[in-house]
Amino acid sequence: MRTLGILGGMTYHSTILYYSQINAHIQRVRGGTQAASLVLHSFNFADISALFAAGRWDTVAHRFIDAARHMKAAGVTGIAIGCNIGHKVAKEVEDGVGLPVLHIASFTAQALKEQRLQKVALLATRTAMEAGFIKDPLANAAGVEVLVPEKSDRDAMDEAIFKELGAGIVTENTKALMFRVLDELIQKGAEAVVLACTDLQFVLKPEDISVPVFDTLELHTKGLAEWAMGS
C-alpha cells in the first residue's frame, strides 16, 4: 500500500468525505479491515481562504509546500490537494516537494473522456471557473467544450461558496442560484455538469439534476484510493 498525503481542511466538511470515501473504496476492493495508509495536514480554512481571496498564491504555495515536505519526511509518496481551487498551485507543490501531485482534474477528465461528451457545464469557485488549472485539463484531455456561468453569476457563486458553504450553511437563496445557473448552462447545450468545488455536493444532488453529474471530490477520492492500492 502506498502512503498518501492529503492537504486538507479546505473545508473540514469535505476533508471528512476525502477520508471516509478513500477508505470505503479500499475496503470494498480489498475487503476485511483494509484501509488507506495516509498522512493528513488540515489547514485552518479561515487563513487559507483569506489567501485565496487576496490572490496571494505565492503564500498558498509556500504553505502547501511546507506541509507536504513534512508529510514526505513521514513516508508519503504522493500528494493530494483536498480542494479544487488549491490546484492552482499544484505544479509549484510538485516541483517544490519532489513528489507527484495527484491532480483532481486528471481523474475528472478521464471520467468525461469515457462518456464521449461534447459540452459540459463547470460549476466552481470564481478562480476555478476563470483560470485554466481545471478547465484546461478537462478541455484538453477529455476533448470537451467547457461552459461556465456569466460573470455576475460567477461572482455570486463565489461569495456563496466562501461565506456560506465553507461554513456548512446552505440557504434557499444559494440553492436557487446554483440551480438557475445550471439550468441556463443546460439550455446552452451542456450534456453534463462538473461540480468542481468540493462543497457543492452539499447543494446540488444528482437526483435533482436532469443531466449526469461529475463530482470532482468523488472522482478524486476513487482515483486516490486506486493509486494508494498500487504497488
TrEMBL record:
It comes from the Eukaryota. Gene3D superfamilies: 3.40.50.1860. Transmembrane segments: none annotated. Keywords: Isomerase. The keyword Isomerase applies. The keyword Ribosomal protein does not apply. GO terms for molecular function: amino-acid racemase activity. InterPro entries: Asp/Glu/hydantoin_racemase (IPR015942), Asp/Glu_race (IPR001920), Asp_race (IPR004380). Belongs to the aspartate/glutamate racemases family. This is Putative aspartate glutamate racemase protein.
